[in-house]
Amino acid sequence: MATTDGNPVSFRIPSDLLAKVDEVAAALDRSRSWVVVHALGRFMDEHGAGILATARGAAELDRGESEDMDLVMEDLDRIIAAAEAKRP
C-alpha cells in the first residue's frame, strides 16, 4: 500500500466522514493522512482500473474505433462453419 510521504493535497471532507476517519485513525494510532491514503488506495485497487477501462472504451467509440457486433458474429459463424465442414 502507498505511504504518506507523497505530495500534499487539499480537499473537503464532510464532517461526518471526517469524524469516522478520525475515529479509525485513533483506533489504529495512525494519522488522518494514513487512513485516507489507505482508503483511497483500496478504492483505486477495486475500482480504478475498471473506471479507466470504461473511459478508454468510450474514447475509442468516440473516435470510431469499433466493430459492428452483427458483422463480427457473422464472421464467427463463417469461421465455425468452415471448421465444422473440415471435421471428419
Automatic annotation (TrEMBL):
Pfam families: RHH_1 (PF01402). It comes from the Bacteria. Residues 9-36 form the Ribbon-helix-helix protein CopG domain. InterPro entries: CopG, Non-func_TypeII_TA_Antitoxin, Ribbon_hlx_hlx. SUPFAM superfamilies: Ribbon-helix-helix. This is Ribbon-helix-helix domain-containing protein. It comes from Methylorubrum rhodesianum.
